[in-house]
């Protein structure tokens, strides 16, 4: 067994490559908290999580002041025990998004360390269901784009072998949303998946009417039609809508997912490792969904999620949104529209150490060592 002897903290801020807008917000930057853990054998694991522009400083303070110091002296292989102990530590004051994002950076680092020491890639260590997964793109579907731009991007994606494109909805009128989706379906035909994402922007009555208006277009799903905490509204909509309902990117607890799954409030689960608290709870949600024959199509983090989607039998899609290119030396490998799970030991991300050092925000750098 090997104890944790060192924890290094850093944060880099990454600007989106394109303008990203949806019905309620803009993705202005990716604050990326990073945790690097070293054990007494000298083995190293690195994990990360993210925000879309706010809260990163709070995550870093929680990591520095409360969570990272508690790792020193722990057995690095006791991933489950560490996760539960840290969640319990913060339960009275900070449970929620900030805690989950912080835990995700730690948990991902522990899994990276664990896989590296076992000389196994994450997708094999976590289950090994398949070596590749279907990939759909979101990067050309933002809400500010005109219908022709959506069509051009989707046609290019289809030509490249992608099997689906996601388009943001939530325009002021149903006719505007319908025009966007109708243009896509006319151009793409019936053999290509169209996903839609409302980003929690609808009220219950609007969601019902918008789902009905989009019924003719055979959508793969409508994502986050209602506020994430409105389970009853999702139950009612799931009963009425022709297309599957997808939720997950704004849920931060396995218990929230349990409520949605058990009550038939969603039939696509988009659990996000960076928001649920890491790989440990992500796998719990995935296997819970498997028991109900529900597909896993995680939100964002394609460089990490490709391995997790390939680890579980109900993993269906990886969402293509490139974001780590500036701090990694190799990106997601896509062949024929399928994302390939990295076969290198660890979580499969080849970090560019020079870029990480250059981009680290100095005020958040922290090095916690045994005996210091």
UniProtKB/TrEMBL annotation:
EC number of the protein: 4.2.1.156
Needed cofactors: Mg(2+)
Protein's UniProt name: L-talarate/galactarate dehydratase
GO molecular function, one term: magnesium ion binding
Keyword annotations: Lyase, Magnesium, Metal-binding
Chain ranges of the Mandelate racemase/muconate lactonizing enzyme C-terminal domain: 147-244
Pfam families: MR_MLE_C, MR_MLE_N
Top EC group: lyase
InterPro entries with a match to the protein in the record: Enolase-like_C_sf, Enolase-like_N, Enolase_C-like, Mandel_Rmase/mucon_lact_enz_CS, Mandelate_racemase_C, Mandelate_racemase_N_dom, RHMD-like
Any GO BP: amino acid catabolic process
Lineage top rank: taxon: Bacteria
């Amino acid at each position: 067994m090997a104890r944790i002897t060192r924890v290094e903290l850093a944060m880099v801020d990454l600007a989106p490559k394109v303008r990203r807008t949806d019905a309620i917000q803009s993705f202005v930057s990716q604050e990326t908290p990073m945790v690097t853990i070293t054990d007494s054998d000298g083995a190293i694991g690195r994990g990360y999580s993210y925000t879309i522009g706010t809260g990163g400083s709070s995550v870093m303070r929680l990591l520095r002041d409360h969570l990272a110091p508690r790792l020193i002296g722990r057995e690095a292989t006791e991933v489950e025990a560490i996760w539960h102990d840290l969640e319990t530590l913060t339960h009275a004051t900070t449970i929620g998004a900030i805690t989950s994002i912080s835990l995700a950076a730690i948990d991902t680092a522990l899994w990276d360390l664990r896989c590296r020491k076992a000389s196994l890639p994450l997708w094999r260590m976590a289950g090994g269901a398949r070596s590749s997964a279907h990939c759909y793109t979101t990067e050309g579907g933002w809400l500010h784009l005109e219908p022709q731009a959506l069509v051009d991007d989707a046609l290019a994606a289809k030509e490249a072998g992608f099997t689906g494109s996601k388009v943001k909805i939530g325009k002021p009128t149903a006719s505007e949303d319908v025009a966007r989706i109708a243009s896509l379906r006319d151009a793409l035909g019936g053999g290509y998946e169209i996903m839609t994402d409302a980003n929690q922007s609808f009220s219950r009555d609007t969601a019902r009417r918008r789902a009905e208006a989009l019924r003719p277009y055979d959508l793969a799903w409508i994502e986050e039609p209602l506020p994430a905490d409105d389970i009853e509204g999702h139950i009612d909509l799931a009963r009425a809508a022709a297309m599957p309902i997808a939720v997950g990117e704004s849920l931060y607890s396995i218990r929230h997912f349990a409520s949605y799954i058990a009550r038939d409030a969603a039939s696509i689960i988009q659990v996000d490792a960076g928001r649920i608290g890491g790989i440990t709870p992500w796998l719990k949600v995935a296997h819970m969904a498997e028991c109900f024959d529900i597909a896993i199509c995680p939100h964002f983090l394609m460089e990490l999620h490709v391995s997790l989607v390939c680890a579980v039998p109900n993993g269906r899609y990886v969402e293509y949104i490139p974001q780590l290119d500036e701090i990694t030396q190799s990106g997601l490998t896509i062949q024929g529209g399928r994302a390939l799970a990295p076969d290198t030991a660890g979580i499969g991300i080849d970090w560019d150490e020079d870029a990480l050092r250059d981009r680290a925000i100095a005020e958040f750098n922290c090095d916690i060592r045994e005996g210091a």
